[in-house]
Write a structure and sequence with these properties.
Shape: elongated
Number of helices: 10
Number of strands: 11
Strand content: 5-15%
Radius of gyration: 21 Å
């Protein structure tokens, strides 16, 4: 239900504002992907009438795109290899201390790739102080120089989420992102990478996540039950209530198409302003 609520919010915001709603399957972390997950996602969205515009984008198809961006940053000497162990990283109080900036790991030593924030700012006239403006959350400022250089290519050889989504956002011409507030903390890094890769600034809206009564996010990790695709109208009405859209009682027996038609016309994202969580 938490995933449906988030998908519905982004769908309604796009359609209410005469935009396109794109579906991207972020499948660049194979160890964490259950078999058949991408197919199940598409089936569930379609069952609830949430039809995307254009073709589905699979991140697993675009390794070359991410490699090109890595190479461009490496050519500008903005990247360095980090062989710090988990034990050492755990011993650092808060931010990464730049220990490997001046070190070169041995060729056979597993290493991740970090972005040198200081050099990136100097060479591109950028500020490490990122002001995150969000449609729903309080404006915040994040000083990336205090947070430390972050990883954009992992030690296990996989592309980091931060790099992949920014490269895809730029490539797809994304203008607006509606997603859960649990991703709000990584927005500053994505804004910085977007600037560094000459992308257009995106407008964000981080909606409250759906939580159980114990305050934990409703997710697979917390053993939340999956939704029944055969109950699409009831699921949509419940998701709309969680999104504070107040669907009228007469919509109760309506088919999916009529519910979505009403929801697109009456969508008001401001009903979710400054809310971090919604409880079942």
């Amino acid at each position: 239900m938490g995933s449906l609520m988030c998908a519905l919010a982004s769908y309604l915001d796009a359609k209410h504002n005469q935009g396109k709603w794109l579906l991207r399957i972020e499948d660049i972390d194979p160890p964490r992907e259950p078999p058949g997950a991408s197919k199940a996602i598409q089936q569930s969205l379609a069952s609830h009438g949430l039809h995307w515009d254009g073709n589905v984008t699979f991140q697993s198809d675009h390794s070359e795109r991410y490699t090109d961006s890595l190479n461009a940053l490496r050519k500008a000497n903005l990247l360095y290899q980090c062989a710090c162990t988990r034990k050492r990283l755990a011993s650092i109080a808060v931010a990464y201390d730049g220990n490997c900036r001046s070190l070169k790991p041995e060729n056979d030593t597993p290493s991740s790739t970090r972005l040198n924030i200081e050099l990136a700012c100097q060479q591109n006239s950028l500020s490490p102080l990122i002001c995150v403006r969000d449609k729903l959350q309080e404006p915040t400022s994040e000083d990336l120089s205090h947070d430390g250089d972050f990883i954009i290519h992992r030690k296990d050889g996989l592309f980091a989420y931060q790099l992949a989504v920014v490269v895809d956002d730029i490539n797809q011409g994304i203008t607006h992102i509606v997603r859960g507030s649990d991703l709000y903390d990584c927005t500053g890094k994505q804004v910085f990478l977007t600037q560094l890769l000459s992308g257009t600034r995106i407008e964000y809206a981080h909606i409250p996540v759906l939580c159980a009564h114990d305050g934990n996010k409703l997710s697979k990790q917390n053993h939340a039950h999956g939704i029944d695709n055969h109950n699409a109208p009831q699921n949509l009405l419940l998701a709309l209530r969680h999104l504070r859209q107040s669907p009228p009682p007469e919509l109760e027996p309506s088919p999916t198409e009529d519910i979505l038609s009403w929801a697109i016309k009456n969508w008001d994202i401001n009903n979710l302003s400054l809310r971090e969580k919604v409880f079942l």
